Structure formats: C-alpha cells, structure tokens
Amino acid sequence: MAAILHILIFFILLCATATGDETSYVNTSELKRNQLRKKLTHFRVYWHDIVSGRNPTSVPIVRPPVAKKFTGFGQINMIDNPLTTEPELSSKVVGKAQGFYGLASQEEFGLLMAMNFVFTEGKYNGSTISILGRNAVFNKVREMPVIGGSGLFRFASGYAQARTHFFDLKNGDATVEYDVYVMHY
C-alpha cells in the first residue's frame, strides 16, 4: 500500500512539473490599511495650446476627410503644451502636457483628451499624471479622470477640472486652467 501511495505522489508531482505553474510570474502581497497612506495632492496649472505662429505646441496630425460643420469632427492634434503656474505664458513653466486630442463629436465641439502632465520642476520633477476623458470645450467647467501616473504618482487616481481662461477666435490659441486632484501613495 505504501508503494502505491509513493507512486501516486510521484505521479502527481511529475504531472505538476510537466504542466508548469501558470501563475509563477504573479506575486500578490497583502497590505494592511496602515502600511500605505494615500495622499491627496491638488495642482493648479495653466495649459497653453499654441496652434499659431512659427513654434506651435499643438499640430494637426490627422485632418478630417470632409469638413463637418463647425465641429472639425475627425481632426487629431498632437500636443507638447507648456504647463505654467500663472495664466501668462511667460510665467514659470513647471511641466508639459504631452499627448493628443481628437475632435470626437459631430454635434458639438467635443474633444477626446489623452495626455500626460509631465512635471519638470521641484519635488515632482520626472513624475507624470495621465488624463483621459471627454472635454466639451464650450462648457464652463469640464471634468476628466486621472487614470494613472508614474514616479511619485504611481497608482494615481483622481480628476481634473478644466476652465478656459483665454481663447483667441482668430488664431485658435488657448489658455486653460487645470485644477487637478490626485490620490496617490
């Protein structure tokens, strides 16, 4: 009987190693509530979308095949917009908004925003916040989710509220105030 038990154990071990452990690349850690403390950080920055002049920070990379009313539906712009501490472009630059926005609505001027706020100054230098969401530009306040981050903003979540501070109807340049609320560890 003992020999049969040994053979059975040997056979089970042989099958387990032959099939491999499909979760060997996963490591789950249990953390107690008091081991990690979440912080709420609030940023107010000004996003400068410069589409005019000799050095634009927002350029169209896809144009719609057919002009759609006033909405521009289908156009996509790539951005590398400065983030400043005050509405004036000459104020201190603390980072860049890098990514793209697409004109995603056929009925109104509604954007799909996908961008990283890349911080280049102070404590948050090298850290990023990722924002992805809808921006109905003619609404007074627009809210978009913060879906992640890097550096000091790993595991970030939160939201950003955008308010147009300035929009030039002639050349399309805009300054937008972003209030960003980020939960992170």
Q: Short description, anyone?
A:
By secondary structure, this protein is mostly beta strands. It contains one helix and nine strands. The protein has an eight-stranded antiparallel beta barrel with strand order 1-3-4-5-6-7-8-9.
Give helix % range.
under 10%
Cα end-to-end separation: 57 Å
Strand content range: over 45%
Characterize the main sheet.
8 strands, antiparallel, barrel
Instruction: State Rg.
Output: 25 Å
Compute the number of strand runs: 9
N-to-C order of helices and strands:
HEEEEEEEEE
Q: Going across the major beta sheet, what is the strand order?
A: 1-3-4-5-6-7-8-9
Descriptive account of the structure:
With about 180 residues, the chain is mostly beta strands. The chain contains 1 helix and 9 strands. The protein has an 8-stranded antiparallel barrel. A hairpin with a 6-residue loop joins strand 7 and strand 8 (about 155-165). The longest helix is centred in the first third of the chain and has 18 residues, at about 1-20. The model has no long low-confidence stretch (mean pLDDT about 90).
